[in-house]
Specification:
Arc Repressor Mutant, subunit A; binds pyridoxal-5'-phosphate; 3 domains; Aspartate Aminotransferase, domain 1; single chain; Aspartate Aminotransferase, domain 2; alpha/beta; 482 residues; globular
């Protein structure tokens, strides 16, 4: 099979997966025969067969003997989505407990069935391709191993990042890109450049606990802004907050936020870019999940609407290319000099041969199809997990339906105790992330974040059902004890 065919079958599988997840093709519905689809798409029957096999592997479709192909018929009871939470309008000092590192350590412990981390498992990445890229980089650029790296990162990687940023609608100058060791390092550098201890930072609610840990370590205050589970950060609420509070920076994940998986509509992204430019407040935009979004247009960054330099773009390849290589980037806009200086002082330049390996992986011909494969694989398991939640969690449970990624946010009936559920799960060697970790407000004590990036086999399906059974024991009517 040539390279063109190789990407073609994935493109067809990806389109169909999108239609199934959007509900355009309903569960149980018959889909086009191999011959029909080959004719419609102007491709060979072998290409369609390969696309259908990919969808079968992902359990999105099934072949029925002598009848054809059908959308897989798990008649999942559809659950409603969580609501936007009303929030206090004052900023809070951040004092997150050690829960984050406790959960993260257990989530990576092979003795646990893990839904605790937002980390993709190793089986999602093409190990051989990564190994070859690292070996090639170390061999071809031997000299980089025995000299100090200098500057903002290798030109090869910055060029690859600039090219990838085009898919987010951003035209970046390679001179404005700084390579870092991770997305969190990028975010920390940006916060350091634009805030001082005691300042207020506005962010989504609920928000990624890693952000809260950074805020705490820098003695910053968090102002949580109402965030819709599908539409993301409320720009109206943010504008009001900017009118009434001394907000020094905004930190947001407009595409597939963590933990909600929300993705802001394009018009809201434009409004957000206009708002930060008018008010002169920096927006630190985390784009770590953009490549995982199923809708091409929603990969567009807020930065693409900004020509004032107020949007500081942060990202990494931890969720999409090779988590172990630890390579991230920042394009700090008008705070470029400050961020470059801080980076030089705090950690210096990054490991060149690893940057070159990532540049290689990003520019190889198979890079786009690897993303597509990743999106299709995680979409199928998220879909299946939603079905299991609908079947086994208590009545009144709500769950998000994100357009990509591998995180679900589950809202248990009001009054449920997610800490008690967390402890009950631990006794059975299952790790989940209780909702309290994702806010300074204590509003999400009845919520749970489930990370589905790790292994996904029968043991995980059984464990998720078991979490649902245990959730019945932490309902307020059952006495709140697990
Ligand atoms: C929104 C968000 N940003 C950043 C990170 C961390 O990325 P990195 O490992 O590159 O620091 C995560 C990981 O869960 C995340 O969810």
């Amino acid at each position: 099979m040539d390279r063109h065919q190789d990407t073609l079958y994935l493109r067809i599988a990806d389109q169909l997966a999108g239609s199934i997840r959007a509900g355009t093709l309903a569960r149980g519905e018959r889909i086009a025969s191999v011959r029909e689809l080959a004719r419609q798409q102007g491709v060979s029957m072998a290409t369609v067969v390969q696309a259908y096999r990919t969808l079968e592997d992902a359990r999105l479709i099934e072949a029925r003997p002598r009848s054809g192909y059908f959308v897989a018929g798990r008649a999942a009871r559809r659950l409603p989505e969580p609501d936007t939470t009303p929030l206090p309008s004052q900023s809070q000092p951040v004092a997150v407990s050690s829960m984050g590192s406790r959960v993260f350590t257990m989530a990576l412990d092979p003795d646990f069935v893990s839904f605790g981390a937002a980390t993709p498992g190793e089986e999602l990445f093409p190990y051989e391709r990564i190994r070859r890229a690292v070996n090639r980089a170390a061999q071809r650029h031997r000299a980089t191993l025995s000299r100090y790296p200098l500057g903002s990162g290798t030109q090869e990687l910055r060029r690859a990042i600039a090219r990838q940023a085009l898919s987010m609608g951003c035209q970046l100058d390679t001179r404005d890109i700084l390579v870092t060791g991770s997305c969190l390092e990028s975010v920390s550098l940006c916060l350091r450049a634009v805030t001082r201890p005691g300042d207020v930072v506005a962010l989504e609610s609920p928000t990624y606990f890693g952000f809260l840990e950074i805020l705490e370590s820098m003695h910053l205050r968090a102002l949580e802004i109402p965030t819709h589970p599908r539409q993301g950060l409320s720009v109206d609420a943010l504008a009001l907050a900017l009118d009434t509070q001394p907000v020094k920076a905004i930190l947001a994940v407009p595409t597939l936020s963590n933990p909600l998986g929300s993705s802001m509509p394009l018009a809201e992204r434009r409004r957000l870019a206009q708002l930060v430019a008018q008010r002169g407040v920096p927006l630190i935009e985390d784009v770590i999940y953009n490549a995982l979004c199923e809708h091409d247009d929603q990969r567009r960054a807020v930065r693409s609407y900004d020509d004032s330099g107020h949007v500081m773009l942060c990202g990494s390849f931890s969720k999409t290319v090779a988590p172990g290589l630890r390579v991230g980037f920042v394009a700090p806009g008008r705070w470029s000099d400050q961020v470059q200086r801080l980076k030089a002082v705090h950690s210096g330049a990054h490991t060149e041969f690893l940057e070159l390996a990532v540049a290689d992986l990003l520019t190889q011909p198979g890079a786009e199809s690897a993303y597509r494969q990743l999106r299709t694989t995680v979409a199928a398991r998220v879909d299946e997990a939603r079905g299991i939640i609908a079947e086994s969690f208590p009545r009144g449970t709500r769950v998000t339906d994100p357009p990509g990624g591998f995180i679900l946010w589950v809202e248990l009936p009001a009054g449920s105790d997610s800490m008690a559920l967390f402890e009950a799960c631990l006794r059975e060697r299952i790790c989940i992330a209780p909702g309290t970790m994702f806010s300074t407000t204590g509003r999400y004590a009845h919520c749970v974040r489930l990370g589905l990036g790790g292994r996904w086999e029968d043991a995980q399906r059984r464990a998720l059902r078991r979490v649902g059974e245990l959730a019945h024991l932490v309902l307020p009517a059952a006495g709140g004890e697990a």
